[in-house]
Amino acid sequence: MKVIIRDDAKSASVWAAHYIADKINAKAKTTDKPFVIGLCTGSTPIETYKELIALVKAGKVSFKNVISFNMDEYVGLPESHSESYHSFMHKYLFDQIDEPAGNIHILNGNAADLEKECADYEKAIVEAGGIDLFLGGIGEDGHIAFNEPFSSLNSRTRVVTLTEDTRIVNSRFFDNDVNKVPRQALSVGVATVTDSKEVVILAYGPKKARALRDAIEGPCSHVCTVSALQLHPAGTIVCDEAAIGECKLNSYKYFKAVEEAELP
Ligand code: PGA
To answer: The whole model's pTM is what?
Structure first.
């Protein structure tokens, strides 16, 4: 696991956007096959999306040959609802980049058969050639996508029940009324994420510090599902100083030293 630490969330977000753009460009140089990316929602990726939009507008990267799969969507929330992840992704990314509409995949939380929707999503990922890079955030409880504590580390896309904690945290988007936050979601599984060739996780602010400590220094455990990254050969955490704050000083120094040593 690599941990990239920046002074603040803004510079970490810019780093992540350039990293992703470089990966898209690198694949385009070697093959005509699309770059397949996994995407997340939440407040964390917004600055990275802003920077990616700027890079697209500056002609530094294109999403014309990118296929995307989003991590999750609430069950039963209309797609047109301002807090659906469909709305979020169009507002913060898709409406401002050149990714063809047909390349965008977001789980349908209103499908008549939710289990089929999830199984079809897994199939679509395989048919697209597998995910090259999955971009994720983490929850305060260490969840990756909506894989709450005690989700199997081998889980696949499925219907999940949100914890009370997650619903309280997300109630800030629903008039601070926890009763308005859906109780269920469709979510890719932990194994759907770790099957990707590469995983990049963003974590900012002191509220993520305990989850990040558990992910980096704790055991690989279903109690903190993002800790599954420990078993991935190409996992990177991109964080700010506040989010790394609960890790040991020696861990912090080690990650800084690794980055320094690998600078061109
Ligand atoms: P946040 O959510 O980016 O809004 O903090 C992240 C998550 O719950 O995975």
So the answer is: 0.97
